[in-house]
Design goal:
Helix content: 25-40%
GO molecular function: hydrolase activity; metal ion binding
CATH architecture of the largest domain: 3-Layer(aba) Sandwich
Number of domains: 2
Radius of gyration: 23 Å
Keywords: Cobalt, Hydrolase, Metal-binding, Zinc
Low-confidence stretches: 1-7, 364-368
Cofactor: Co(2+); Zn(2+)
Bound molecules: zinc ion
Distance between the termini: 44 Å
Mean pLDDT: 94
Strand order of the largest sheet: 1-2-6-3-7-15
Oligomer: single chain
Pfam family, one: Peptidase_M20
InterPro entries: ArgE/DapE (IPR010182), Bact_exopeptidase_dim_dom (IPR036264), Peptidase_M20 (IPR002933), Peptidase_M20_dimer (IPR011650), Peptidase_M20A (IPR050072)
CATH class of the largest domain: Alpha Beta
Amino acid sequence: MKNEQVYYFEESIEALASRLIRFETTNAERVNQSAEYCCDWLRSHGVHVDVYENQGLKSVVATVGEGESTLILNGHLDVVPGQPELFHPRTVDGRLYGRGSYDMLGAVAAMMMLMAELVQAPPNCKVILALVPDEETGGELGSGFLVQQGVLGDLVICGEPTNFKIGVHAKGILQLKVEVKGKAAHGSRPWLGTNAILKAMEHYHSIVSLDVFQESTTYFKQPSINLAKIEAGKVYNQVPDLCTMGIDIRYLPGQNPEEILDQIRALLPDAEIEVPFRGVPVETKSDDKFVRKLCEVAQELAGDQAVLFGQDGSADTRFYAAKGIPAVEFGPVGANHHGPDEYVEISSLYVYKDILKKLTKNSKTKDE
Ligand SMILES: [Zn+2]
């Protein structure tokens, strides 16, 4: 045990991140192994850790310090799949290459190292580190569950890959299954039928032209629509009588998904529309006192890169946002997440840890 502790204490952020990458956390079993490792690592550094289990998936909740305010650091341990070599991390020219290095095991390693340091030099607030599964597959089983269990705070930082930019807004998700009916006929006499595929295409174009999809906000040029799935047609010699579209809408903070849905329903009165998935947008106020503080510290230590922005995609921030808690995406510098040459700049992991550390030293002043 003693040797183990010495070994742990000697680990650098990049060594710890490399260890996490090697777990190849693309399935539940390996995500749990990684969670257990993180739990042991943190406990061996004197950090208090609780493990939550939900539908066989483990989340690690580590706590250091106490104070009037609570900072939640959130990191997901799961990664998207990749070629086998991506799970053998390597360091080239100050960059750590590997699946998850940037999204977001590098940030997780920096956060863990920070927790260990905070045991030695306590923060002025309560700091909770939530290491979760399931982010890449929806998040309900990890962060969603922890929020349900009351693991809440005053500011949440999800260590997503942002190059030190601070993601205060994120689009909401509205995914639709639209069933369009036609009329079958022999393929040699298409004029006798109604082609459901062609009808669906017309419907799709009229949806895209709705005014609501031309709106913009400070952080977003417009909402997005992706025609993600088409299922229709059986044989060449028949006019298809049914076409099902899968449409992924990402709407803007401030827009009302029910209104969007009503408008689409009004446009396609004869189509059947289901909503298989939805997610709330994130609309963290840029003048929130904790966000301002993060901005200030990030600009001081990372320079001009630390600007506010809106994120097109969705992250675990939305579970906290749904509870009215200011939540931001903020992570180190790198590139190619979910791609073949994913890397994180190692020096940025240290700057990242220092920013978070400084934030925990600053958070006590209540009247700021
Ligand atoms: Zn991520």
